[in-house]
Amino acid sequence: MSTAIPYRYQVGIESDDIDFMGHVNNASYLKWVQAAVLDHWKALAPSEAVAQHLWVALKHEITYRKPAFIDDDVIATVLLEKVQGARAMYETVIRRGEEVLAEVKSSWCCVDAETLRPARIARDIIQRFFTSESADPA
Length: 138
Prior knowledge:
This protein is an alpha+beta fold.
């Protein structure tokens, strides 16, 4: 059995993230998830793979738990759940300390950077995102 390697992404809250109610607007969470997932890819994939592949979000399902505010220290923890063909399924949990602010399930499509057509990720690259407990994380 394989286990995804958690990736922690420091979220920066900007003044334009704050809505009329004085807390982070829900749309900002999407921006954070996209930045966290793409940073996760860039941090763990080899530079050649990063240059050859782009990621397009297909679907986000967000459960909001608590509001975030301008001075909060927020971390998004990203887990790659599985890869099927050119699709990757992610779970991202956004926290302020131990408090869960939001949970996000998202699916992404990998595309070739030149042709912009869906592209499969090589198994050896996928394995970089999982512990070495198993040779078959996908």
